[in-house]
Amino acid sequence: MKIDKILIIADDSAPSIKAVKYGFGMARDLLAEVTLLSIVDPINSLGNPDAGVFPDDAIMAAKADAEAFLNKVKKTYGAGVKTELLTVVGEIQPAVIKTAIKHKADLIITGTHGRTGLSLLFHGSVSDAVIHHSPVPVCVVPMDI
Asked: Choosing a second label site near 37 at 20 to 30 A (CA), which of 48, 78, 83, 112?
């Protein structure tokens, strides 16, 4: 199987940064292109109307922060790799799947927090949800490599 396009899911967590490094390394080795994706989940950007920060403003601010983060990550880790930056507002798992299909990704790379027990129950697992719904292979990069 030839891997020409890699979708890397990125946020500012340590597991995600580890996955980004791994993904760019793989892209260099395979001479593949990268789509670096950050997702702003509206549920995490509710704002505070009492303080004059409305939900739409909070989402726009979160999206601007995500875009700045992606630019920094590309500059830090993406040397020599053709990279498209993409920030999407929506639920994480569906956004990843839609992006993978739309951008014809051959592989999705994501990190994992390694949650278990109650933490997994309450916070869920993005990587687990993506694995179970993805039409393309998914590489999950653990924290301990």
From this structure: 48
